[in-house]
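Supplementary Methods, section 5.1.

A reviewer requested that the exact input to the structure prediction be made available. We therefore reproduce it here, unchanged from the version used in the analyses.
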Amino acid sequence: MTTTAAHTEARIVAIVHERGHILLEQLLSCLPGSTWNQVFLGVDALSRQGAISVRRRGFDYEVWTPSPPPDCSFESLAATVMRSATLMHSR
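The structure derived from this sequence is encoded token-by-token as follows.
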């Protein structure tokens, strides 16, 4: 994972957790410095990690925050995303 990918993922997590849910197209507009591919790959990676969820809503896709475990905070989740990105980048 590159530093750019880690930064994009951290921003995605922050936006989704702040809003609770957001359409993928709206998420793209919140990240003007990122390409569609970067956002899509970030959403894909984060959904596979369980940090966010994606569901189809009509013709759109909605990104939302799954119910976190009671001992999970946003800060610990963001730290985990950044730590995994750092580990992948150092390889």
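The two ends are 9 Å apart (CA to CA). These observations are discussed further in the main text.
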